[in-house]
Amino acid sequence: MERIDKILSNLGHGTRKEVKAILKKGKVEVDGVIISDNAMKIDPDKAIIKVSGEEINYRKYIYLIMNKPSGVVSATVDKHDETVIDLIDEEYKAFDPFPIGRLDKDTVGLLLITNDGELNHKLIAPKNHVDKVYYAEINRFVDESDVNAFKKGVVIDDGYKCMPAILEVLNADENGSEIMVTIQEGKFHQVKRMFESVDKKVVFLRRVSFGPLKLDENLLEGQCRELSEDEINSLKQV
Ligand code: URA
């Protein structure tokens, strides 16, 4: 059981004070009855709550999939740059969400955002080996020797030997290559550093999948949507 003013405030309907005023105006209905007592306790999982006639969608956690654009940082706050949280709707900001893992400022593509700390830990835990697939453009000719080096596990600049990665060359010539790479780790700048270890440079990077989820083609860069129940469950089973 939770106080109605806390529930509505957490769902982004204003500060406790503002919610109190909404209640006073008779705009809040719980199971068909208008209530004005801001301290009233209800079970938000069971009660049907309406504000100004509109039913609210109560949930403790939110799960968003974003098509991250270039130029924004994967953080909740930043002194200089716009963050991925700045891009989401106000109604979601009330949940205090954060990104699951990080994409570099210049990397685009699939980024998950949630306030579910437990799921976050599970998905970023190195022992869980969640597959992440990236499409990348590389400045030089990527060949079979690179594919084999990635398969064995390349050693990056700090001496760390990466886990085996699947590198697929989509097309390649002297001017550059397009590739897909699947990695199971999430080290800082990992894909870029893996290519540096074979003397090449990533010039464009897009994450196209994360575990069971694929980048949603309907999402323009900068947009996000809530995950479906099925998508949330598939992530929880990772
Ligand atoms: N690897 C990188 O180098 N950058 C990213 O943003 C993600 C993976």
Would you spell out the secondary-structure blueprint of this structure?
Blueprint: E1 2-3, H1 4-10, H2 16-24, E2 28-30, E3 33-34, E4 41-42, E5 49-51, E6 54-55, E7 63-68, H3 90-93, E8 98-99, E9 108-114, H4 117-124, E10 132-138, H5 144-152, E11 166-173, E12 176-183, H6 190-196, E13 202-210, E14 213-214, E15 224-226, H7 229-236
Parallel strand pairs: 9-13
Antiparallel strand pairs: 1-4, 2-3, 2-5, 5-6, 7-9, 7-15, 8-9, 10-12, 10-13, 11-12, 13-14
Helix pairs in contact: 1-2
The structure holds uracil.
List the keywords.
238 residues, alpha+beta, Structural Genomics Hypothetical 15.5 Kd Protein In mrcA-pckA Intergenic Region, Chain A, Alpha-Beta Plaits, 4-stranded antiparallel β-sheet, 28% strand, binds uracil
Distance between the termini: 32 Å
Share of residues in helices: 10-25%
Reading the helices and strands in chain order gives EHHEEEEEEHEEHEHEEHEEEH
CATH topology value of the largest domain: Alpha-Beta Plaits
Which ligands appear in the coordinates?
uracil
> What would you call the quaternary organization?
single chain
CATH architecture classification name of the largest domain:
2-Layer Sandwich
Number of helices: 7
Q: How much of the residues is beta strand, in percent? A: 25-35%
Rg from Cα? 22 Å
Q: What is the structural class?
A: alpha+beta
Residue-averaged pLDDT:
96
What is the domain tally?
A: 3
Count every beta strand, where a strand is a DSSP E run of 2 or more residues: 15
Low-pLDDT regions: none
Q: Give the CATH superfamily of the largest domain.
A: Pseudouridine synthase I, catalytic domain, N-terminal subdomain
Largest sheet data: 9 strands, mixed
What form results from the Cα inertia axes?
elongated
